[in-house]
Amino acid sequence: QARQQFFGYVVFLGAHCAYGQAGLRRRLIVRLHKILHTLDSSDLALRCLFPSDAGTQVDLSDDQELNATFEELLQVRIDLDAAQKHEARLRQLIQMYMGEASKALFASGGSVTWKRSKDGLTFNTSKFVQAHPTLAERFMTPKPGSRRFCVYEPEPEV
């Protein structure tokens, strides 16, 4: 039901954005945001809703709520980076004590494994293209680009 609601709003939003009704657009985006929290595929839904950019810029510096969201995003990224580094140090400590063992058991009943994956084969596309350019060209398929969300932190004040 959330998916139907979401895509209903998407169609409605698309129609009204085309006619420049900014106030309505804002209210619909807020509703979509609430629905997105209930969907597992919110990233996919946003990519479908906004598949490409218009090359324009929007100034959100007057929107206190979105500025707070941006600041929270920056803090979450810092926290996530610290947590990932901490996780790596803990994992490496356990691996150091495991040595060549494949599995380690813990008092909680939990365990970890550290095993080598099976060797495999990989297709070297660049060598194939160099050796057989005409054949490779016959099997090339265009792949559409996608939007990337990049975060730029404010420049430090000097």
Quick rundown:
By secondary structure, this protein is mostly helical. It has helices spanning 2-18, 22-36, 42-49, 64-98, 125-131, 133-138, and strands at 103-105, 111-113.
Spans of at least 5 consecutive residues with low confidence:
none
Instruction: Give the ordered list of helices and strands.
Output: HHHHEEHH
Shape: extended
Strand order of the largest sheet: 1-2
Draw up the topology in text.
Layout: H1 2-18, H2 22-36, H3 42-49, H4 64-98, E1 103-105, E2 111-113, H5 125-131, H6 133-138
Antiparallel strand pairs: 1-2
What does this structure look like?
The longest helix is centred in the middle third of the chain and has 35 residues, at 64-98. The chain is built from 6 helices and 2 strands; from the N terminus they run ααααββαα. It has 158 residues and is mainly alpha-helical. Helix 1 packs antiparallel against helix 2 (22-36). A two-stranded antiparallel ribbon has the order 1-2. The radius of gyration is 24 Å and the shape is extended. Strand 1 (103-105) and strand 2 (111-113) form a beta hairpin. Helices cover 56% and strands 4% of the residues.
Features:
two-stranded antiparallel ribbon, single chain, mainly alpha, extended, 158 residues, 6 helices
